[in-house]
């Protein structure tokens, strides 16, 4: 690329630091562990500064724990670098974890292309349905796909009933903001979820408000940690609820109720 030696060294140092290998800059690749060697490959790819990167099963030879860790690192790098990555994988869980869009091929032909949730909820044919049959849908589906929208919930006076037994109810303001929530006629504390939730030391009943794009696996954890339906919001406006029925629909790969 016509770069001087000092510029090349600067690029090497930058990319090694990016992938967490700056402490091993004086080592040959064959002297590193398998996971570190894959990081060397990532550093080399990013050093090209290409807009589009092709990665052909880069983590397939690694043990599951290292592979999972490197997948997380790749997601973080992608978030920071904003690169388009074409990632080839035979591991569906890996594809669903990493991809914003997925192309499934059969016999050299693309048989379905779409977002992960679409692949899981709306398989294009039996081949795709069989392909996704044994993965955990809650690791892919997000709250917005399975929630029951507020406008479809039953009402009692000015309260919105969050479950069929009417144990949990909320009141909303004119702009859709939550005013208060009651469970079994007891006032409930509301807490916002932003990637982390500390439920320790809570002395009063608690319910959680989360973004509409929360992963259903995390929604499941919160739902059963609090014992109450999870409220979903967009722009501080409550738009839906995740309770037992919605979680069951997720396990059955059924989209949100239409009635």
Draw up the topology in text.
Elements: H1 5-18, H2 34-47, E1 52-56, H3 64-81, E2 84-88, H4 92-98, E3 102-106, E4 109-114, H5 116-121, H6 126-132, H7 143-146, E5 148-149, E6 155-156, E7 159-161, E8 168-172, E9 178-183, E10 186-187, E11 189-192, E12 206-211, H8 216-226, E13 230-234, E14 237-242, H9 244-251
Parallel strand pairs: 1-2, 11-12, 12-13
Antiparallel strand pairs: 3-4, 5-14, 6-7, 7-8, 8-9, 9-10, 13-14
Helix pairs in contact: 1-2
Q: What is the CATH T-level topology of the largest domain?
A: Rossmann fold
- Corresponding CATH architecture of the largest domain: 3-Layer(aba) Sandwich
**Mean pLDDT across all residues, rounded?**
87
Q: How would you spell out the order of helices and strands? A: HHEHEHEEHHHEEEEEEEEHEEH
Range of helix content: 25-40%
Main sheet summary = 5 strands, mixed
Secondary-structure class: alpha+beta
Q: Looking across the biggest beta sheet, what order are the strands in?
A: 5-14-13-12-11
Number of strands: 14
What CATH first level of the largest domain would be assigned? Alpha Beta
For the termini, the CA-CA separation is 61 Å
CATH superfamily label of the largest domain: P-loop containing nucleotide triphosphate hydrolases
Radius of gyration: 23 Å
Shape: elongated
Unreliable stretches (pLDDT < 50, length at least 5) are none
Total helical elements: 9
Tally of distinct domains: 2
**Strand percentage:** 15-25%
Outline the structure in words.
The chain has 259 residues and is of the alpha+beta class. It has 2 domains: 5-137, P-loop containing nucleotide triphosphate hydrolases (Rossmann fold, 3-Layer(aba) Sandwich), CATH 3.40.50.300; 143-251, CBS-domain, CATH 3.10.580.10. It has 9 helices and 14 strands. Helix 1 crosses helix 2. The longest helix has 18 residues, at 64-81. The protein is elongated and about 75 Å long. The protein starts with a helix and ends in an 8-residue tail after the last helix. The model has no long low-confidence stretch (mean pLDDT 87).
């Amino acid at each position: 690329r016509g770069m001087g030696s000092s510029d090349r060294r600067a690029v090497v140092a930058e990319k090694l630091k990016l992938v967490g290998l700056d402490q091993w800059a004086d080592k040959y690749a064959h002297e590193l562990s398998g996971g570190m060697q894959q990081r060397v490959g990532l550093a080399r790819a990013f050093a090209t500064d290409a807009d589009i990167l092709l990665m052909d099963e880069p983590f397939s030879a690694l043990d599951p724990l290292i592979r999972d860790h490197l997948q997380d690192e790749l997601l973080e790098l992608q978030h920071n670098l904003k690169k388009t990555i074409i990632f080839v994988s035979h591991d569906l869980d890996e594809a669903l974890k990493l991809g914003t869009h997925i192309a499934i091929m059969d016999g050299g032909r693309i048989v379905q292309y779409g977002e992960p949730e679409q692949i899981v909820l709306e398989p294009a044919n039996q081949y795709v349905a069989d392909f996704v049959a044994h993965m955990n849908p809650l690791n892919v589906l997000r709250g917005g796909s399975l929630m029951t929208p507020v406008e479809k919930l039953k009402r009692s006076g000015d309260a919105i009933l969050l479950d069929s037994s009417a144990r949990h109810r909320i009141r909303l303001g004119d702009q859709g903001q939550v005013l208060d929530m009651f469970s079994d006629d007891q006032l409930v504390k509301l807490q916002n979820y932003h990637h982390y939730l500390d439920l320790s030391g809570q002395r009063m009943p608690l319910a959680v408000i989360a973004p509409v794009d929360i992963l259903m696996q995390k929604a499941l954890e919160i739902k059963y940690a609090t014992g109450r339906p999870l409220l979903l919001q967009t722009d501080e406006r409550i738009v839906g609820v995740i309770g037992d029925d919605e979680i069951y629909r997720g396990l059955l790969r059924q989209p949100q109720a239409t009635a």
